[in-house]
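Please produce the structure of this protein holding adenosine-5'-diphosphate.
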Amino acid sequence: MKELEIMLEIKNLTKILSDKLILRGVSLKLNKGEILAVVGPNGAGKSTFFKCTVGLLQPSGGEIIVDGEIIKKKSAATRKKIGFLGHESFLYSTLTPLENLRFYGKLYKVKSIDSKANQLLKEVGLHLFKDVPIRSFSRGMLQRLSIARVMLADPEILMLDEPHTGLDQDAVSLLNMIIKEKKNIGTSVLLISHDFEQVQALADSVAVLKKGKIIDTAPLNADLNLEKMKDWYSRAVSEG
Ligand code: ADP
Ligand code: MG
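Below is the modeled complex.
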């Protein structure tokens, strides 16, 4: 059997915020082409974990290894392998979708930005609005544009923090299709979600984060249907 290639490894990650230990030693491995869902109660530290991993927050301790390379403060090139979708959109409200993507395209040194941006705007269903300043956009439209922004540099790892929030049914299907296509070409995905249906539809395995620690992990297969997953989660959270 072909050995699994580890794309992202987190070792004993800790984070102190305002004298509180928010992450208490998070460890996990993400294989190439794997989709791992991270679930857990509000305030468990999921977003903090993602922000530390992508470099928006400085970890207090532990190790982050991306594609075999230990991340240091200045590992910008390696960090570019990760595409991050967070709670904030990181978009500029006075700019149009096309202008926003051009801006990020330059930042990420994307080749043929305009054709790539137009292609992505078609994919996320915003092509008709590509020249409209986004300040008038709905939450869902902004989320669609954020998805396009994250895909712009073809990251090898996607870290998506509650990406389905605010999306209508069409956009949910669209996002899931994009995620599955990315998986098929070998992209690895870490996904925070409260929506077990989406977790079920997408993930290969699921990890429960509670009070700054991963307390349980399970593979998602035919044995773990939606009901069983909910039971397993409730049990893990009440015991862990
Ligand atoms: P989750 O995404 O799982 O809901 P977060 O990572 O957003 O959780 O937050 C984890 C904990 O860290 C919460 O208790 C939150 O109040 C706390 N927290 C987040 N940001 C800060 C901060 N800047 N200063 C102090 N505490 C923070
Ligand atoms: Mg969060």
